[in-house]
Amino acid sequence: MPSIQACLFDLDGVIVDTAQFHYIAWREMAQDLGFDLTREENERLKGISRMESLEIVLSIGGVQLSDEEKLRRAAAKNTRYLELCMQMTPDDALPGVRHFLDELKQNGIPSGLGSASKNAKAILERIDMLHYFDTIVDGNRITKGKPDPQVFLMGAADLSVPAAHCAVFEDAVAGIQSAKAAGMLAVGIGEASVLTEADIVIPGFENFGLPQLENI
Ligand code: G6P
Ligand code: MG
Question: Which of 23, 24, 61, 151 could be bridged to 114 by S-S, CB 3.0 to 4.6 A?
Fold first, then answer.
């Protein structure tokens, strides 16, 4: 692989485990509408925008809503999600990730955030990690969601680093597809049996640093 000059990070499931809160909030909405949402079904929502996630959840329950009601439900889900997120503290960053971001900074390698979330900045502030990122590409900036490469290509452009010299850290299938479509090195965070299109899959950032990244 060409040498890595920038690292781009997904937020949910990579920097912090907010997936559990998305799950709780979507599940409560589903139950309110009369059906359940399993953890397995929740996997399909990772990396997918709020409104697309809503459509998937409604299709799982076979529920149809008016556009107005969809917007109301999505807003209510987000209020509940943020209420859960605000319980987090800086200790909730996933193990090893802060150390890895420090290592990148010390070595002059810029970091960017590439997330579909419209809450990305608020969450990074909450866990005191906003300062690590030289650019933030979030759900308020992108017009095409993952698996489209836009989110990571915008991050690379912001950092003035060619795509081929960027590494992406992602826990979602759609996010790995987005990184590969952008022509970047895709590091999966999670299980190799799920993230089959990643260049390499690691369980997390513990025992992972620049030497390991350079050896991929
Ligand atoms: C991330 C999560 C998704 C979530 C999306 C939008 O990509 O993995 O599960 O739906 O962000 O998040 P938001 O905070 O804008 O509702
Ligand atoms: Mg994610």
Answer: 151
| For the CA of 123, the nearest ligand | 1
Among the listed residues 82, 73, 87, 90, the one whose alpha carbon sits nearest the alpha carbon of residue 22: 82
Quick check: helix, strand or coil at residue 167? strand
Q: Which residues pair with 189 in a beta bridge?
A: 202
- Closest Cα to residue 184, out of 207, 161, 160, 203? 161
pTM of the full predicted structure?
Answer: 0.94
| Residue whose tokens read 């900036």 | 141
Answer whether 156 contacts ligand 1 (Cβ < 6 A): no
Residue written as token pair 């990244």 = 213
Condensed to tens digits (0 to 9), the pLDDT of residues 98-130 reads 999 999 999 999 999 999 999 999 999 999 999
Measured in angstroms, how far is the CA atom of residue 2 from the centroid of ligand 1? Answer: 31
Q: What phi-psi label fits residue 187: left (phi over 0), alpha (psi between -120 and 50 degrees) or beta?
A: beta
Contact (Cβ atoms closer than 8 angstroms) between residue 182 and residue 168: yes
DSSP string, 15-77: TB--HHHHHHHHHHHHHHTT----HHHHHTTTT--HHHHHHHHHHHHT----HHHHHHHHHHH
